[in-house]
Amino acid sequence: MSKKLRLGMIGGGQGAFIGAVHRIALQMDGEYELVCGAFSSNPEKSKASGQELGLQPERVYTSYHELFERELQLPEDQRVQVISIVTPNHVHFEPAKLALQNGFHVVLDKPMTFSLQEALELREIAKASGKRFCLTHTYTGYPMVKEARQVVASGRLGKIRKVYVEYPQGWLSRFEEGEGNKQASWRTDPSQSGVAGAMGDIGTHAFNLAEYVSGLSVTKICADINIVVEGRQLDDDGAVLLKFDNGASGVLIASQVAAGEENNVKVRVFGEHGGVEWQQSDQNTMMLRWLDMPAEVWRTGGGYVSSYAQHNTRTPAGHPEGYLEAFANLYRNFALCVKADLAGEQPKPEWLDFPGIEEGVRGMAFIEGVIASGKSDQKWMDFSTEV
């Protein structure tokens, strides 16, 4: 199906960071047309944002409630089909719930909800709706992250024994929320972010990468959670020991007070025979290290990579692909699955390779688990996706 999917956006108006990233990503492959939106809780800002984006004035709404009400009044061949939600964490659950209940597919920024209880409820709503759901854990969209997952799944490394994942940032090394920084203000506010700061914002990405690449599930966690900058309400630094369902162990580090660091998220997975490594600062490269052989350097676009990496590669070998392309891969794969559903066809396995509702629930369980462990004298805790 070549026809574009009609998409509406909630959040992401003037002054927002991630909304513009979503719009670039969703438009990169021509799979979507942005047709409507409720871009801000401020009605004037929402209208102004829609005008900047060239939308029809009557389809720029002052709230997401109005968006759903008005769009449902349109003929089916005109109304929105996919809802992209790019609001702060405390405004994830209700619009996602309403979108699914009213028959729309959903793309949602991470973490999935404000609490694990909301995540569990949203999982049931999504299952009952029969609609597609995508959670934007961006880093799983990189071709060589997908290749790393395929190498591990092939068994070439043997039984997995150790997983290391880290996400260092430095942008909150000062009390930015006290200086009028909008992004810092809501991310460090418990009423908007939830129970976690750094662990919710970037720790969830690291956790998702650890499970995605290793193909394993975390069963136990032991966390050290810190508030480094004086006056901050939520964690800005932490480390977590992990136990996986095959007996492997791991270490996760997430910090927003690593002064000078940007976003060099890195994952390493080691088995009996060797290990695989990927980091965002050299995103086109995957390293394979062997116990009794020289290390190998694998590159995006090489003829030797799997169909999963090939499908998500956009440029000729030797040309860098980055964050926006990885983000766009999530949107494209999601669109291909929705279009296959509309055509009554079975999506290809490569198209189905994007984070969904289960990853969202596990991310929220991670957030609440590490904060509970960090506060408790009983450090090791069972990891559960149930309440």
UniProtKB/TrEMBL annotation:
Residues 146-276 form the GFO/IDH/MocA-like oxidoreductase domain. Pfam families: GFO_IDH_MocA, GFO_IDH_MocA_C3. One of its GO terms (molecular function) is nucleotide binding. Residues 6-135 form the Gfo/Idh/MocA-like oxidoreductase N-terminal domain. It comes from the Bacteria. This is Predicted dehydrogenase. It comes from Pontibacter chinhatensis.
